Amino acid sequence: MPKGVRCLVEECIFNEDRDCIADAIEVRSNGNDIVGTAKGTLCATFRFRNFDQGVQSMQPSVHA
Length: 64
Ligand code: SF4
Hints:
Residues 5-46 form the DUF1540 domain. By secondary structure, the chain is an all-beta fold. It is built from no helices and four strands.
């Protein structure tokens, strides 16, 4: 991963102090035919970090 990829998605297991530590990322359009703003993109490399369990997990916790 090139240095300088700053990411504020702290819920991702690849996020370390607001930097992305993944070897590579894939960014895709968000399903719209036309991507006119940043809201039209998403990081497909995102994997959920489960803070509730005290361990990293790819499964989001669901609270009833
Ligand atoms: S993989 Fe994507 S969402 Fe996760 S830290 Fe890197 S840039 Fe952010």
